[in-house]
Design brief:
Order of helices and strands: HHH
Number of domains: 1
Strand content: under 5%
Number of helices: 3
Largest sheet: none
Radius of gyration: 15 Å
Helix content: over 70%
């Protein structure tokens, strides 16, 4: 069983990786919206359906669940 310190470190590392993926995703979306205007509408619909991140997650499990949701939303946008 991981300690709270290890869980916190793992969550912080995952958050940094997800932030980097989101930045790459934003850059890809910017390129695609310029090249394909109809792509912008699909991206806007996808972004509106994403869950916002609850910054006040009281437990490590909830924080991990939010990270998983962020990864899922990035994957959906990339796949669409």
């Amino acid at each position: 069983m991981e300690t709270n310190v290890e869980l916190k470190k793992n969550i912080e590392e995952l958050t940094l990786k997800i932030d980097a993926l989101e930045l790459m995703n934003v850059q890809m979306v910017n390129i695609l919206t310029v090249a394909f205007p109809e792509f912008k509408l699909n991206v806007q619909k996808s972004l509106k359906s994403n869950l916002s991140i609850n910054q006040s997650s009281p437990t490590a499990q909830q924080a991990i669940n939010h990270l998983i949701e962020r990864l899922d939303s990035i994957t959906k946008i990339i796949d669409s």
